[in-house]
Amino acid sequence: MDFTEAYDDTCSTVGLAARKGDVKILRKLLKKGCSIDVADNRGWMPIHEAAYHNSIECLRMLIHKDSSENYIKTRTFEGFCALHLAASQGHWKVVQVLLEAGADPNATTFEETTPLFLAVENGQIDALRLLLRHGANVNGSHSMCGWNALHQATFQENAEIIKLLLKKGANKECQDDFGITPLFVAAQYGKLESLSILISSGANVNCQASDKATPLFIAAQEGHTECVELLLSSGADPDLYCNEDNWQLPIHAAAQMGHTKVLDLLIPLTNRVCDTGPDKVSPVYSAVLGGQEECLEMLLQHGYSPEAQTHLVFEFSSPMCMAFQKEINSVNDDTLIFTLEFTNWRRLPPTVEKMISARASYSSWALQQHIAAVPCLAHLCRLEIRSSLKPQHLQSDSFICQLPLPRSLHNYLLYAEVLRMNGVPELAVIQDGEISEAT
């Protein structure tokens, strides 16, 4: 059975008259003794039809016919009473009639929704004023998660309703079941006007949800630059750790999600201890994890280290190790090049060095050239040895062969692997102490 769509063939004649607001027909039906409590497929009775469709005179006739509290509080199959329906539609005169007849302003549906919440949700400020005047609880929650009217007004950025609720005593620090305050809602959804009103009313800009996240953290994560600016100018702490392990900050959120404008605001304000400090995690990790090239470049250019501390959670020895050991195929070439520009990748563990070399074999020309341009220790030794020899000695393969060095270094000193890589024919190489032509 569908409880949302009205089927006319299930509605009583009294219900149809109330729905249409036909006072004459309704009066005749009532005189004939027709029942006023026959429900349709949604559990709607004539009183619900009259309230929802703003049929004020029909509503009064029905209440006069049965003025008991039970009839006024009759619920649909979803737990809505007439007051819920009238409040949701903003029929303030109907709301007034029902309240004066004894309707409960704090009645809840089966999902714990109040008439006041429905009025806020639908922007019905006149109905809201009436409900507040008749004792509606301004801090009552909606649904099982604890979200209330001020949360909803903030989300919808209805400034007039927010101000009214605050004036009537709404708790600006109220939390839902996840520790989320209205100010947190404003920051999360980028509701700048709502955020401004709440801050002006004294809301705590450094409040933390159950998971320790702050409004500044969530605004940075979502990329709401203006909200970040307002929070920072209002005293939000960029160094307030936003997780149980005390390492994640707003700067990490901005770096991972690629919000460069937000990152630009946070870099000069964030304590640099997070970069290389013990028991911390550098935001460089976050930029690499998110594959955020511009954010990575910004952090490195501002002096953040690509060889930061070991990651507390993933146990990578450096951001570079994370890039290759975690998701080597998903990190783009540009991100890798930026990181290589600030570190000597030959100092990384051998397994990572092999990964980089393998990656270069199928990557862009720019990455191949960049990796080729970074000298390894063996090449530096080769250059040092050659620099100590005379020019005529360098021209003699036999002289190189006679040097008191391991045989494996003879071909290396002659750049045999470089010539072979470039397809140079008839390369003279040293095998078992004798010079021969390469095949």
Describe the structure.
Pathway: Protein modification; protein ubiquitination. This protein is an all-alpha fold. It has four domains: 1-137, Ankyrin repeat-containing domain (Serine Threonine Protein Phosphatase 5, Tetratricopeptide repeat, Alpha Horseshoe); 138-234, Serine Threonine Protein Phosphatase 5, Tetratricopeptide repeat; 238-374, Ankyrin repeat-containing domain (Serine Threonine Protein Phosphatase 5, Tetratricopeptide repeat), CATH 1.25.40.20; 379-437, no CATH class. 51% of the residues lie in helices and 3% in strands. It is built from 29 helices and four strands. A two-stranded antiparallel ribbon has the order 1-2. A two-stranded antiparallel ribbon has the order 3-4. Strand 3 (428-431) and strand 4 (434-437) form a beta hairpin. It is elongated and about 125 Å long. The termini are far apart.
Cα gyration radius (Å): 37 Å
Low-pLDDT residue intervals, each spanning 5 or more residues: 426-435
CATH superfamily of the largest domain: Ankyrin repeat-containing domain
Helix content: 40-55%
Find the structural class using helix and strand composition. Answer: mainly alpha
Instruction: Could you tell me the CATH topology label of the largest domain.
Output: Serine Threonine Protein Phosphatase 5, Tetratricopeptide repeat
Largest β-sheet summary: 2 strands, antiparallel
In round numbers, the mean pLDDT is 84
Architecture (CATH level 2) name of the largest domain = Alpha Horseshoe
Tally of discrete structural domains: 4
Q: Please state roughly what percent of the residues sit in beta strands, choosing from under 5%, 5-15%, 15-25%, 25-35%, 35-45% or over 45%.
A: under 5%
Work out the helix count: 29
Record field, number of beta strands: 4
In CATH, what is the class of the largest domain?
Mainly Alpha
Sequence of strands across the biggest β-sheet: 1-2
Distance, first to last CA: 84 Å
Globular, elongated, flat, extended or rod-shaped: what is the shape? elongated
